């Protein structure tokens, strides 16, 4: 696998070069210290893999990813950075990066992760994998047409209760906030579960974030 290393710290690049020299299936074909140099060298060398830092002197490594993959979509790019940022992770993936590894990743994890790219696997640090899974869950909570239709079944007061459920409020807290009795809250929760076909209060609280995406104006109870 031919590798281009992009990082503005020469010492770090040298460490990676030394590491890959000891591996028969890796060959470092170039080094770059800036985003512009990375773009030029990617075009000239067309490596199999680019290890790209994010914060470079002239531009963001993520922007370099976008530029490189626009012309050379078959090149695999993995961000290798010290920044454990969910926002940067998803921006990099959106632009086409195949992985996001932290610079403190052990060699015993780094090398198998890079080899996994050839099998179609993503190269992600354990903490980054957790963030990806959390994002998948959040995406799963986006409203669907079915959700919108279900919400139409609720009265205004039931929607108010559902919104409080999303905050983890107890029946007593909901009663105080909405100025109604706890018994009335229980009745509303029961009706919400029935109308939305949900098994329990916890399921309602998970459904609630989707409900918050909509206008709560409806016919009053």
What this model shows, in words?
It is a single chain. By secondary structure, the chain is α/β, with parallel strands linked by helices. It has 2 domains: 2-138, Rossmann fold, CATH 3.40.50; 145-211, Arc Repressor Mutant, subunit A (Orthogonal Bundle), CATH 1.10.10.10. Helices cover 54% and strands 12% of the residues. It is built from 11 helices and 6 strands. It has helices at residues 10-21, 35-45, 61-71, 86-94, 107-117, 126-140, 145-151, 156-165, 171-178, 182-196, 201-211, and strands at 2-6, 27-32, 49-52, 76-81, 99-102, 123-124. Strands 2-1-3-4-5-6 form a 6-stranded parallel sheet, with helices on both faces. Strand 4, helix 4 and strand 5 form a beta-alpha-beta unit. It is elongated, with a radius of gyration of 25 Å. It starts with a strand and ends in a 10-residue tail after the last helix. Mean pLDDT is 83; it is low at 136-143 and 213-221.
SSE blueprint and pairings:
Elements: E1 2-6, H1 10-21, E2 27-32, H2 35-45, E3 49-52, H3 61-71, E4 76-81, H4 86-94, E5 99-102, H5 107-117, E6 123-124, H6 126-140, H7 145-151, H8 156-165, H9 171-178, H10 182-196, H11 201-211
Parallel strand pairs: 1-2, 1-3, 3-4, 4-5, 5-6
């Amino acid at each position: 696998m031919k590798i281009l290393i992009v990082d503005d710290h020469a010492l770090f690049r040298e460490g990676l070069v030394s590491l890959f020299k000891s591996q028969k299936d890796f060959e470092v074909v170039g080094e770059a210290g800036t985003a512009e140099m990375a773009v030029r060298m990617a075009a000239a060398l067309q490596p199999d893999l680019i290890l790209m830092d994010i914060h470079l002197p002239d531009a963001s490594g993520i922007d370099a990813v976008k530029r490189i993959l626009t012309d050379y979509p078959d090149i695999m790019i993995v961000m290798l950075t010290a920044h454990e940022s969910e926002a940067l992770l998803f921006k990099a993936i959106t632009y086409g990066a195949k992985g996001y590894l932290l610079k403190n990743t052990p060699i015993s994890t780094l090398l198998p992760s890079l080899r996994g790219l050839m099998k179609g696997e993503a190269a992600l640090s354990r903490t980054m994998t957790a963030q990806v899974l959390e994002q998948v869950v959040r995406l799963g909570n986006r409203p669907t047409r079915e959700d919108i239709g279900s919400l139409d079944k609720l009265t205004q007061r039931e929607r108010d209760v559902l919104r409080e459920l999303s905050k983890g409020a107890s029946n007593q807290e909901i009663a105080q906030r909405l100025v109604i009795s706890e018994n009335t809250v229980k009745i509303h929760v029961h009706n919400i579960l029935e109308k939305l076909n949900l098994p329990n209060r916890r399921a309602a609280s998970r459904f609630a974030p989707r409900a918050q995406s909509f206008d709560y104006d409806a016919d009053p109870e």
